Amino acid sequence: MSMISFIKRKPLLVFFILAYIFAWVFTPLIVISPVYGLPGLFAPAFAALIVSGITGGRHEVIGLLRKLTIWRVNLIWYLVALGLPVVVSLFIALLGRFFGSDPSLQFAPITALGLVVFILVIGEELGWRGYAQIQFEKKYPTFVAAIILGILWGFWHLPNFFIPGLPHYEVPLLAFIFYTTSLSILAAWLMKNTRGSVLIATLFHGATNTFGFLTPGLEVETRWWLIAIVYTAAALVIILGTRVRLQRSLRRSTDNASVG
């Protein structure tokens, strides 16, 4: 079997292999400076473009890139994408008071590197949401696809957990996996309501990394478990709310059909 045939038969598998390899090769350079790890943010995008080009040619590549240009959506979704992480972060910080942390709240410092990362996560989202989420949805319901993607997305960060000085170093891996899985569900929900806009997903991802409140005195492990729990709760609310809305819609459709 040729390599091209294998990629066409297992596009998602090849996508994740490439996304992991392209990102992990930059890991040794991060020890020198986090800046050298920035190209790794584009690993999912490069993997998606390569697999899309092989499986669908130019047409599929253009279709993937067009998801970046879907910006004409209701203003409310821009507000949700940028504001939801702030609201959740505030809630996490307030909960931190029950764990003996300093009752004061501090807004997370916005640095030049943080702003760069805010923009460059578009490289992640083009691959994760623009390609992988859509491919998984060919086999699974939206939120099941998002859960699978969220777990794989979490483990994509694995090398960073072994590098002293990086934000991931003291973070409990399981809590982080819960966090990325919840974000994946929320991002999938945003995309479903914005005609598949990778731009909106990027704004949401960037906001979770950049905007937030810090709770001084709270241990890293405790803080991250709070983050995981609150984001998981937010994801469950969205799942349940979507299910209820779908059931109401189906009920109305049935009632209208009966009347007709």
Write up this protein.
This protein has 260 residues and is mainly α. A two-stranded antiparallel ribbon has the order 1-2. Helices cover 70% and strands 2% of the residues. The longest helix is centred in the C-terminal third of the chain and has 40 residues. It has one domain.
Main traits of this protein?
260 residues, mainly alpha, 70% helix, two-stranded antiparallel ribbon
Give the helix proportion (percent range).
over 70%
* Element-level helix/strand string: HHHHHEHHHHHEH
Total strands: the figure is 2
What composes the largest sheet? 2 strands, antiparallel
Mean pLDDT: 90
List the total number of helices.
11
Q: State the separation between the terminal residues, measured CA to CA.
A: 56 Å
Overall SS class: mainly alpha
Q: What does the secondary structure layout of this molecule look like, with pairings?
A:
Elements: H1 3-9, H2 11-24, H3 27-30, H4 43-66, H5 75-95, E1 106-107, H6 112-120, H7 122-136, H8 142-156, H9 173-192, H10 198-210, E2 213-214, H11 220-259
Antiparallel strand pairs: 1-2
Q: How would you summarize this macromolecular structure in one to three sentences?
A:
The protein has 260 residues and is an all-alpha fold. 70% of the residues lie in helices and 2% in strands. The chain has one domain.
